[in-house]
């Protein structure tokens, strides 16, 4: 049983919380911006738990669908479904458990949030398959990873506002940027496996598009701050975040696998910067 629990922990990336943080920061930022700094503590707690549960579910279903290719990639060959620590049926059951845990949290929200959540769950299941037929699967990841913003708006305001759509779009372009950096580190593996990624599709323009997506994202964050009358601290934080973006660009410019992965991880600081700015900007 102990070994099985260790396998499940590896399956949900319990030791690699970066994915949870990248999901959480824009959602928390949306809560503060959309409520002018007065979010519901209960909803914040629910969404923190829900983010962890849904990210875990996403990791499990991703590994389940990719179990035929993960063994051929150095970075993923030690995943539990490949080593045999977890059987496919056990992975599916784990996915269902985390999906149900996420769904149980919706009891404390409203009907509109439930509808929005169902659409988000569909994206979570669909995304792992898109790399096999869609040239830029990061588009689907961008939609899935930004969905929490729309759910936050639905939960707090019982509607999708213009500002929430702008924040959703800001998050979408941010995800496009950081997962493109991630795909640059996997470029050779993806090419050999004949699967799609933005790094392969964008080709020689990938660095430019990475930078463009980051700039568009920050511009949209700025627009949301303007529409919601946030204080100067928010806009100052966006300027500081540009330092991290420049650092990331310097990391990916030579296509070094390890540095591209560092650029991906560095986006945690971008998320933190925007979140802190969102809090300070509403004081």
Structure description:
The chain has 13 helices and no strands. It is mainly α and 283 residues long. The protein has a single domain (2-281), classed as UbiA prenyltransferase (Tetracycline Repressor, domain 2, Orthogonal Bundle), CATH 1.10.357.140. The longest helix has 25 residues, at 41-65. The chain is globular. The termini are far apart. The model has no long low-confidence stretch (mean pLDDT 97).
Protein traits:
283 residues; mainly alpha; Tetracycline Repressor, domain 2; 0% strand
Walk me through the topology.
Elements: H1 2-11, H2 18-34, H3 41-65, H4 80-83, H5 88-105, H6 111-130, H7 138-157, H8 162-185, H9 187-193, H10 198-202, H11 206-227, H12 232-252, H13 257-281
Name the CATH superfamily assignment.
Answer: UbiA prenyltransferase
What CATH architecture would you give?
Orthogonal Bundle
The description of the largest β-sheet is: none
Helix/strand/pairing category = mainly alpha
> Share of helix among residues?
over 70%
Mean pLDDT: 97
Q: Can you identify the CATH class?
A: Mainly Alpha
Give the low-pLDDT segments: none
Percentage of β-strand residues: under 5%
Q: Counting H and I runs of at least 4 residues, what is the number of helices?
A: 13
Shape: globular
* Whole-number count of domains: 1
Order of helices and strands: HHHHHHHHHHHHH
- CATH fold-level topology: Tetracycline Repressor, domain 2
The N- and C-terminal alpha carbons lie at a distance of 49 Å
How many β-strand runs?
Answer: 0
Task: Calculate Rg over CA atoms.
Answer: 19 Å
